[in-house]
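Support case: zinc ion complex. Customer-provided input:
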Amino acid sequence: MLNALTVDFEDWMQAHIDPDRPITPRVVDNVRRVLALLDEYQVKATFFVLGKVGDVYPDLVREVDRAGHEIASHGWGHRLVWQQTPEQFRADLRRSIEQIVALTGHRPLGYRAPAFSITKRSLWAGPVLADEGFRYSSSIFPIRKRRYGIPEAPRFPYRWEDCDLVEFPLTTARVFGRNIPVCGGGYMRLFPYAVLRRALHTVNRAGQPAVVYFHPYELDVSEVRVLQNQGYPIGRRVAFMKSLWRSRIEGRLRAALGEFQFAPMAQVLELSRKWQLSATA
Ligand SMILES: [Zn+2]
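Agent response - structure generated as follows:
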């Protein structure tokens, strides 16, 4: 069973502090670290690139593309979808699409909303994505969170009702009748590997693909401390929460890469046969 491996190709501060913070050069080393790790396991992934990062580091996007990974869109400015009007959202998407076409020569098939911000208040985003040529979205988390999530949304890939778009929801585990996020980001840092492992096996045994997601900066253990030392104002609580257990994620990724089969999302959804799976795990 093929699972989707996805990387939110962004820098840390714009996603967690303020979208207007400058892109730091750390993103270059962090993305290269991810490329080296995936190369080691001969796995191709989907990179949802943030337009602002591609603007500052266009060669880095080309490098990921040339390495054979899928380049998809994370939008341009990391503004939450439900904080935008449909017109602003469309403009943000178009900027991102134009950049990806310019850098890679092809239009992105997939989109992931910043901070999973397609929620009940922003379901208008689906038809806009389909209208702009996207074939899939991986933006809806079927959980209940203050800023994101649609708890009753389907847990496995499905077709949007009102447009020609496939949604690949973020993978959850079912625990006492509730959906629990365990397959990426902070959740993957928090829970031991056994939790991720069990979730992936359970989903695959049900005949469904899972999606694992992470961010290049999560492999950058000292980033938050270094940025604080460089004088960036980062609150103590944010610094603590967002750097917590970054040291653990690489080991967990390695374990998952060694045990499960992964491919770019477009391949898992059979929207493209461009990506050949070469992993033997
Ligand atoms: Zn993001």
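The chain is about 40% helix and 15% strand.

Case will auto-close in a few days if no follow-up is received.
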